[in-house]
Structures are given as C-alpha cells and as structure tokens.
Amino acid sequence: MSVDTVDTPAPRPRGPGARRARGGSSWTAFAMRRFAGLVGTVVTAVVVTFLIVPLIPGDPAVSAAGPDATVRQIEAARAELGLDRPVFERFADYVGGLLQGDLGHSFSLNAPVADIVASRLPFTAGLSFLALLVVLVVAVPLGMAVSALTRGGRRGKLDAAFNYTTAFVAAIPPYVMATLLVLLFAVTLQLLPPAYTRSQPGVSMLLPALALSIPSICLISRVVRRETAVVLEQDYLRTARGWRLGTLRTATRYALPNVLTSTLTLSGIILVGMLGGAISVETVFSWPGLGLGVVNAVATKDYPLVQGIVLVLAVVSALMTMAVDILLGIVDPRVRGDHDG
Amino acid sequence: MADQAAVRPGRLRWNPPLVVGTVLLALTGVTVVIASLTLRGTAEGLSADTAQPVSAAHWLGTDDFGRDLLARALVGAQASLVMALAATAISMIAGVLIGTAIWTAPRRLREVALRIVEITVSYPELLIAVVIAAILGAGRWQLVVAVALANIPATARLTANLSGAIHQRDFVTTARLTGVPRRALISRHLLPNMAEPLLIQLAASFSTGLVAMSALSFVGLGVQTPDYDLGRLLADGLPSIYSRPLEVVGPTLLILLLSIGAMLVGDGLAAAADPRLARRPAGRAAVTTRPRSAEPVPESQQSEQQSESSAPVVVRDLVVRRADGTSLVHGLSFEINRGEILGVVGESGSGKSLTALSMARLLPDGLTAEASALRTGETDLLGRPSRRELADAVAMIYQDPGTTFNPALRLGAQLTEVLRVHRGKSTVEARTIITDLLAGVHITDPERLMRSRPYELSGGMRQRAMIAAALAAEPALLIADEPTTALDVTVAAGILRELARIRDETDTATLFISHDLGVVEELCDRVLVMKDGVIVEELSREALRAGDVSSPYTRMLLESVPRLSGHGAVRR
Predict the structure, then answer these.
(1) What pTM, to 2 d.p., does this model score?
(2) Residue ranges per domain, chain A?
C-alpha cells in the first residue's frame, strides 16, 4: 500500500452495464471465485511460512540456538526444527500439523504456538476492529461532506485545507503518530495511559487505535471525497435531486451506495495495510497482540512462533480482503458478475 | 491504474505539491548529507555533557552519553535516506523487469505469475518485510533487502498491467504488424509510455520504503545499536519520553519531513500525469459561488405579473447568468396552458435545457436564474418553495435513460421514492400506485421491472419507467428534455405516444425540448424556436406544418429535417 497509488484510483467505467454480468453468474459463482482466491492466498502463506526456516542463510539451528549455545543446545534446536529430516518430510509434517491446528512449539516461551496465538489474537483483533470502526465512522461522512461542500469548485479554502491537512497527516507513519499521541495525551495532558495496562485494557486501547486509524482516516476520506465528486456529477444524482428528497436522503440513499462500491476496494487495501501498521504501533504501546508477538519472536529467533504468527496474520488479512469483496457484492451486485474484480 | 498509460509522455507539468515536495526533499537531503560529513564526530563521540537540555551549543540537547541529539538525528537520517534510496532502486529495477517478463511470457505462465503477484500484493508490506528480516537477521543490508523485496510485487503488478494496457493500443499493434522486433517494442514503445506512472510508483516506493525501514529499525528488527538510523533513534528515545521528550523530536521531525516530501512529490507527479486530478485553474474556481436558487424580484412587480395570467405555467423575462455576469438566456417569456405540450426547438447551446433546468430549479452550480415571474401551478419558483411543493410543481424526464437511474438500486426503490417521501405513502401503497402507472405506460410486467436494476432493462423500458416516476408526483408541469434523443426510432415513437396520451388524459402542462423539428411538429401544440438564448419565433403546430414561418433560422431548421416516410410514426 502506498499513499499515492491509493490516492489515484484507476478511473473505472461507471455507466450502467459497464460491468454487466456475464450472464448466469450469481451468488454461488461469485462466492466460489472469492473462496478460490482465499484458498490461493492461504496456500501461498503456508508455503512461504514453511520456507522461512529452510531459507535462513547458514545453519538455522545455530542461529536459533543463539551465539553462546553449546553443541548440545544446537542439536536440540536442530531436532526441534526438524532439520535432521528431509525437506519434503518436514513440509508434510508442517501441513499435517496445521490441519490438526498444531502450529508447532515455541522455544522462547516453551508453549504451543497455537496457545500463544490464541491469547494474543483477541488483542490485535480488538484493536484493529476499533480502529476500523473509527475509520469508517469518520472517513466516509467526512469525505462525502467535503465533496458536497466543495462541489463545482466552491469553497476553495476548505478544499485546500482538506487536501493539505489529509496529505500531511496521511504521510505520518503509524509509529510516529503513536509517539506524537503519547507525547500529547500521555506526557503533556496526562489523560491516557502511554502503554498497555492490564487493569484498564479498554482505556489503554484508545491511543493505539487512534494511532492506527488517523492516517487511514486521511487516506480513505480523500478517496471517498474524490469518488463522491464523480458520483455527484452523475445523471442519476440529478434525477434524485429532481425528486427533491433533501440533501441528507439524496446523499445517503443515492450517492452513498455508489461511493461505497468504488471506495471499498481501495479501503480493503488500506485496512490490510493497517494490520502492518499494528506491528509497529503495538510495539510503541507494548500492546500484547500478534504484532508485538511477531517482533519479539523474530528478535529471539523463535522460528516456530514467527511462522505461526505470520501465518495467522496472513490468513486474517486474506479473510479481510474476502470480507470486503463480499460486502462489495452485497452493495453492488454488478461486482458479482465481474470475473476479474 | 491501467489507464494512466493513456497519458502521453511529455514534459513534466510542475504544480505546487510537486515544487514544494521537491524543494523539501532537496533541502532535507542536502542538509542531511552535509551533516553526515561534518557532524559525525559530534553525533557519535562521547562527551561529558550528558543529558543536556536545549542550549545554543546543542539545539536539541544531548543524550545520556553526551552525544548531540540534533547531530545524531541528521546523521541517522542520512543512513535512512541512503538505505531507502537503495531499496527503492532495487525494487523498481526488479519490479519493472519482473513486470515486463510477465507481460512477455506465454499466456498460461503470465496468468499464473499475475495471480502470484496479486496474492503477494494482498499481504501487508511490513509483514513481508518482517518475514524477510526473520530469515536474513538484523542489520543494514538485510534491512535494505527486506524492504526492497517487500516493495517489488506492487511495482511488478503495475508494470505488468501497464504493459498489458499499452500492448492493446493501436500504435503498438501497428508496430507489431510492421515487424518491429520485440526488444525495440519494449524500449521504444512500452517504457516511454509507462514512464509517468512508474515515476509516481518510484515516489511511492521511496516513501513506503523509508517508512517501512524506519518501522523495522524502530521495533528492533532493522539496524542494530551501535549503528543507528531514524527508526532506531526514535526507539531509543521512546523509553525516556517522560523524562526527556526532546529525544524523540529530532528523529520524528526528520521522518516527517522526508515522508511528507516524498508524498507531495508523488501527489504532484500524479496530478501532473492526470490533469483531471490537478487543482482547477483559478478562473474556473471562481465561477460558482452564488446559491442555486432563482433570484427573487421586487415584491410589487412579482404580484403584478402573476395576477396577469391564469395559465398553470408562467415564465416572464427569464435570464440565466454565469457567476461572472454573462447571460446565457436573455429574457424569455412564455406560458403553457393546461393540457398543452409546448415544444422548444433549437440547436445545442441555444439555451433550451437551461430554460428547463431553471424552471425545475436544478441549474448546475455556478448558474443563476432571474425572472420577473416564474410560476408553476400554485408554486412561485422565485420564492423559497418547500421540497414537497417543488416535487408537486415540476417533474422531469431526462435525455439519456441509460444514466438517469441509480445503477446500485432496484428500480422499485427509486420509482416509489417520491410517493414515500412527499406523499407519506407506505412502501406497499407506493408500489401499487407505481405498478398501475407502469402498466399505464405499457410496461408488460411491472412487477418484474420493479425488481430489476437499471442496467438489466432496455433504454425504452427505462424511459417509460422514468415517465411513470415523473407522473407519480402528479406534477403541474412535466418537462421532457430531449426524451427520445438517445432512443432508436421505433422506441422513440412509443415514448412520444405516451407523452401525447398523458396530455390528453391528465391535463398536465408539458414542456417538450428537442432539436428535432420533425418530432416537435408531430407532438406539440405550440412551438418556440430558440437561438442563442432568445426566442426567435413562436409558432402554432398548424403554422409549422404548413411551413408558414417568418424567421430565416426556423426555415433553415425546417429544411434540415429529413422528410422520410418512416417519420409518420406519431401521426395521430
């Protein structure tokens, strides 16, 4: 994901029939295609995470056991990683284990990876969900309002202010945003805790959620604004205005579905990017989620834990992409017939 | 992205974000390079001045080892900058090569490769970078490789898509047919046409690369102490953020300067490549400030004018102006009687549609209407009629039925909207009324039409549905703005018959706009001929049929009507 590619969506045909169904394709075919996409992504993730260990330069066992390890410890690590067996056998084991819900055993924490993931996943899920909620609740109305207010080149100052503010804020990396938020709310104002506190997880979730959502709000509201500007000039919106439904009803019933269609695709990419952002933001706030988990695992060369968490994060991002696609299919049935969208 | 390929390679168009971004990056870059050459000693040498506050000697104070924090931030920025440039170079070169290779591959291989690239793009970049960091371990070059690899898929996909799009364009087809060798095809046709989007991608790669790299160093997976870059410095400062918040200021500021600079350059390049996205020229931005309402005229004049006529539609001295004061319609006056279809003909730009839109109060932003009287039924269109009054007063049928309905909603929801909002009907009642109206305009299966979405119907069916929607409000005035122009002749004839029937059955006043005198002659009771915003002639149908016209312009229009036998479709 990048600011610029996201910010300049490929203009797609918007006229009716531009993405007309190819005939006979419907929910089942649509769901099948999306499911196939999910399977492809998950299979790739399985293969890639497996490859982490064989691809480590030198001897992974030495690297895993650490610089001061004895020969015995290195051999133990070698057995643990299964390096004494052929690659294909290990892969079969890896896949077999995954099918039974076994993600391996963490060296550093001496616990099943699946348990560690299960205990950390709710923290990342909760954080991402809150951030996502904030993003959608703020970005969509904001973008639509700015678009309506600046329609036809009116309110040039608002236009410029919105453009520059969102551009600047969107360029702030999440961990820098996190640091700035800590400086402001924890150090200066002393309103919110600067890190995860076990006693009040809800309150300590606010700052990380803000750090994750603010840059995304800026990106998505820019997209919404641009898409709304296009939709507002469409004939069907003039028709709706001709029916005198009032600004709010016209906006929510007639502009919103069309804005959503084009916005959701891009938002999906941005939201998956937020998962990446969680990796650094969780570190700032010592948030005990998967992001901080994978960072610690890499730092301690706990390869099974790295594999497990990366796999789960990849699957979660694939599920999010699929959820967005299905949402698209509900909002705009033309998408269902679109074989390559 | 693909259609950015349509942009012709050419001179770079400088715009404010591009200039500001370039200047920002250049200044920061030069400062950072100079600092890394001159300040390395201050940045890394230990001194006795530990944990100093801000002073003239140390602008941002010093850290626990007495190292100048500003110098450290600047030298660290140089490391980040060099690494980001290296990663960008690697990812761009590899991405373009892979993308081009995918495009030149045989079809099967190409599709598989594209799928893989798509899947890779769908993972968070930072996650890929973390995986690679896990494999390679921590350190400078590992960091560069990790971020470069993570950035490759996006560039590869862009290149492959661009190649595909350009490949289908005419000049490439021509080049291939004339036997231009593949290598020349790539270097002479493909790459120059991809230059602009790839340049934008370059800026994007740089900014995401810089951010991702600092993020990895920040979380401890990148550059390791005692080596440092911006991310490392920020992480080092974070634990002591309460006692010495200044320590995070330097690295934060430099990351922001660099990433905002890169973002502005990317935005600027995108705007330069696609003028549609560029800021509007000042001249146009000034056009639209006035409200979209018709301007009220003095009270006395208004009442005097209105008492004058009993016709349901009265227009007096209608002027439509641009915001800069130039008028497009210059003082039209006419009336429409009950059960009358008034035709307005004229070439495009003659002001017909503006007249109609003024009466519907739907003028585009930037245009204002003034009149001494503008009235439909009981509604004074110069005042502040409520939405409901407006809906009762005027309904419109538009030119292109292909675009007048919202493609995301079923027709039933759209057709019943007016009844539900303005008449307080329940959904069921509204559907019954609309079903009857649809049957009235000869839709054979109204129920099915209500369940359909606009793009599932033919143009004729959509236009009939539009008429039904217009009739639902039982408006005093029905405006049909070229309702048959987008339809083929037989379908158009059906629509015209409906309009004639509505006039006969409902007593509605209709304003029928067309550029086709033949159609107007068939349908309308009276005709206004417009040219350049004024009425040049008013004719009865009989006069028009007899060719009894006085204006040379009308005569010219009449003579341009092809007189073919097929035109009698609406003759009653």
Answers:
(1) 0.74
(2) 49-102, 122-336
- List Cβ neighbours of B234 (8 Å cut-off, separation of 6 or more): A175, A176, A179, B214, B218, B248, B251, B252, B255
From the list A137, A223, A214, A113, the residue with the least C-alpha distance to A168 is: A214
The encoded tokens of residue A9 equal 């969506």
> Which CA distances in Å does B301 have to B316, B368, B372, B382?
11, 19, 7, 12
Is the Cβ pair B455, A20 closer than 8 Å? yes
B73 vs B94: CA distance, rounded Å: 31
Would you say A167 and A8 are in contact if contact means Cβ atoms under 8 Å apart? Answer: no
Note the pLDDT tens digit of each residue in A274-294.
Answer: 888 888 899 889 999 999 999
On whether any CB of chain B is under 8 Å from the CB of A27, the answer is no
Which residue type is seen at A110? Answer: N
Read off the pLDDT of residues A232-290 as tens digits, 9 standing for 90 and up: 888 888 888 888 887 788 888 888 888 887 777 777 777 777 888 888 899 889 999 99
Query: In sequence order, what are the residues at sequence separation of 6 or more whose Cβ sits closer than 8 angstroms to the Cβ of residue B438?
Result: B415, B446, B449, B450, B464, B465, B468
Q: Which residues of A181-204 are buried (b: 16+ CB within 10 A; e: fewer)?
A: bbbebbeeeeebbbebeeeeeeeb
Between CA A302 and CA A288 the distance in angstroms is 17
Q: Is the ipTM of this complex over 0.90?
A: no
Give DSSP secondary structure letters for A37-100: HHHHHHHHHHHHHHHHHHHSSS-HHHHHH-TT--HHHHHHHHHHHTTTS-HHHHHHHHHHHHHT
With contact defined as beta carbons under 8 Å apart, do B363 and B354 qualify?
yes
Compute the residue count for chain B.
572
Gap from A12 CA to chain B (nearest CA, Å)? 9
Q: Going along B323-400, which residue ranges are E strands? A: 327-336, 341-345, 367-370, 373-376, 379-380, 394-397
Other CB atoms within 10 Å distance of the CB of residue A323: 13
Determine which of A126-130, B19-23, B119-123, B278-282 has the lowest per-residue pLDDT on average: B278-282
Domain at A122-336: CATH code: 1.10.3720.10
> What residues have CB less than 8 Å from B511, skipping those under 6 apart?
B313, B336, B341, B342, B344, B356, B359, B477, B478, B479, B480
A152 near B CB under 8 A: yes
Cβ pair A321, A327 in contact under 8 A: no
Q: Whose structure tokens read 């009907």?
A: B425
Q: Which of B119, B262, B394 lies at the smallest CB-CB distance from A40?
A: B119
Please report which helix (H) or strand (E) contains residue B323, including its range.
Answer: none
Sort out which chain B residues have CB atoms less than 8 A from A8's CB and list them.
Answer: 1, 4, 200, 270, 274, 277
How remote is the C-alpha of B75 from its chain's centroid? Answer: 43
For chain B, how far is it from start to end, CA to CA, in angstroms? 54
Q: Quote the pLDDT of residue B274.
A: 62
**What is the token pair recorded at B192?**
């120059």
